Amino acid sequence: MDENLKEVELLINAQSNGVSMVGIYGIGKTTIAKVVYNDMLDQFQRHNFLENVREKSKDGHGLLELEEKLLSDILMEKNLGLRNIDEGIEKIKSECCFEKHIVTTRNKRCLDVYESYSSYEAKGLAHEQAKELFCWNAFRKCHPKDNYVDLSNHILDYAKGLPLAFVVLGSFLFQRDVDEWESTLDKLKTNPLEDIQKVLQISYDGLDDKCKKLFLDIACFFKDEDEKFVTRILEGCKFHPKIGLRVLDERCLISITNDTIRMHDLLQEMGWAIVCQIDSERPEKWSRLWELQDIESVFTRNKGTKNIKGIFINWSRIIEKRILTAEAFRKMKRLRLLKVRFNSMVQLSQDFELPCHDLVYFHWDCYPLESLPSNFHTDNLVELNLWGSNIKHLWEGNMPAEKLKVIFLSYSNHLVDISSISSMPNLETLILTGCKSLESLPRNLHKLKCLQTLSCDHCSNLESFPEIEEEMRSLRKLNLSDTGITELPSSIRHLNGLENLDLSYCKNLLGLLDSIYSLSSLQALNLSECSELVGFPDINIGSLKALEFLDLSFCKNLLSLSNSIGCLSSLRTLSLTNCSKLKGFPDINIGSLKALESLDFSSCRTLESLPESIYKLSSLKTLRIANCPKLEEMLEMKLGQLSGVTAFPHYKL
């Protein structure tokens, strides 16, 4: 590896005009690129490493994600909000200046489009480096055990210098006896030396049946997905993913970084090849379908069979209307996973049916019908995602859905009824963001004892929240932002596990009832842009002992704060930005705000003074007082008493 690194770095530095590009192809190219990148980080203030470009660039959504990642890292800005790919390209051209480029490719000819570049063929690991990498995985030390020396050398010959092969084979052989090593070597001898996938498949062949299914599902559907999401779905498939993912990780068939499941390209392609090997020319015989041309071949000829257990379709680029009939799915009686990505051009006939009892995951963006099919089976359903659908109600009656944990109905603009959720006792997440026709939530909402997250933000016609007749200890997050809510019921006190309450942009909210102070677990309360909010109930707000974040910004009619606000002993952030009618800040026990780190009075133009007790805020780090004209003279004289505090915009203390 050292030789490869030196040669690549020499090529980068050899180009004298300050801007250089090196294209790497061959064996172990990604490993080399990462090491060179990490080795050169200290030379640059801004840098970016884009992974999985080939897979992500297959659709517009992935390309947009790559652009946002690149711009976010280089411009050091978050939430850029790019609207389309072209906007991203223009922003990259106009605002990004790249000095060093490292590109990896499987096809050297792809580099020929550039007028000036250096190319380098990665040659794989030299014998000693390969031996060390293999031994660390096979023996957990840098050299082989005495009776494994010859076996190790023979296996090294078959891996052809590919780092991935040494890691996978070494992990597979760890703690295995000599007989198992010899058996593995025999398998390697029966495969062509050029076919590295066959070498890698030895580790796959050593898995039990459930781990094999787990591996293939990840290769075909769940690479680069969130670990919790994948675990939830594959638990529903009865694959025992908690132990299975650990086994795959130990065998180096996957890795889990930042809660995301990663898989090397070659291992993914090996998984694809295993699925296709039953009959490479007839995708209807495969267990999983993921490529558009294969899926369309099955659908257009109505060739679906009971062999098919998973379909992930990305129709984001089609421009011609597609109509799917009941016949297309009629024979897919063992389908577990179905996902249709972004496209409103895909239409369903009114007789659409889905006759599969094993369905665990159903995700259909822009689902075109007003309800799910009459024979929709929910016995094993774990997650339902109908983003941007035409759905009006889920299904008729109380269809049992005891395993259902997650429902996404965001931006289903015609949704008017969700009463059927009462048949979902294990529901944990309900996302209704942007359902503008939804006027009410079920009166028996309290029966959802497992519900942890409820998001109704941007449901502009939702004007009331139901009475909570029993305790809901599991609910942690409640988002009612930008709804028509005028008040919360007194029974809100029964949400005694609630940690995050978002009422921002509730422009009809007139006030808060005393019962909100019963939410002893509440950590974050967002009331920003509640323009009709005048004040808090003047009782002991200090009972919110866990509250860390309170946002009252742009509450333009807020006249005063509760005198007991000083009792919020856990509060770290208090924002009062643009509370234009606020004239003062309470002087009652403010010194007990011992955790407060950030206090924002920006644009509180009528604020005349701050209490003397503000100088007792021992943890305060940031005080924002921009556009507070009546405070300026007082601040000049007294802010020096706040040691270690930065005051914006004028004072550095």
**Gyration radius from CA atoms, angstroms:** 30 Å
- Provide the residue-averaged pLDDT: 84
Structural class by secondary-structure content:
alpha/beta
Number of helices: 17
Strand content: 5-15%
Note poorly predicted spans.
Answer: none
Helical percentage: 25-40%
Largest sheet: 17 strands, mixed
Summary?
This protein has 653 residues and is of the alpha/beta class. The protein is 27% helix and 13% strand.
Q: Can you describe this structure?
A:
This protein is an alpha/beta fold and 653 residues long. Among the domains are: 2-123, no CATH class; 127-205; 209-275, Arc Repressor Mutant, subunit A (Orthogonal Bundle), CATH 1.10.10. The chain contains 17 helices and 24 strands. Strand 23 and strand 24 (651-652) form a beta hairpin. Helix 4 (60-75) packs parallel to helix 5 (85-95), helix 8 (163-173) packs parallel to helix 10 (196-205) and helix 11 (209-222) crosses helix 14 (265-276). The longest helix is centred in the N-terminal third of the chain and has 16 residues, at 60-75. The protein is globular. The two termini are 51 Å apart.
Protein traits:
alpha/beta; Arc Repressor Mutant, subunit A; 17-stranded mixed beta sheet; 17 helices; globular
